[in-house]
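Changelog-adjacent note: as of this version, every example in the card shows the full chain rather than a window. The one below runs 69 residues end to end.
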Amino acid sequence: MSAKILEILSGRRPQTASSTVELLTDREFEIFQLFGRGKGTREVADQLHLSAKTVEVHRVNIKERLKVL
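Full-length structure tokens:
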């Protein structure tokens, strides 16, 4: 499990088709990485030039896709 987390945080997408992270869109994956690096919603929004509300919508979608509700 720790190897998968390191792979995700390193910016590389897993090569296996069975990975749930592959269900994320490119933007969701980008936001997922930034949250994984400890950035908050406002920081992510500022860095990606998005509104905080948009980032929160992506966060909800990420949780749904990864089934971590």
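Structural remarks: The mean pLDDT is 85.
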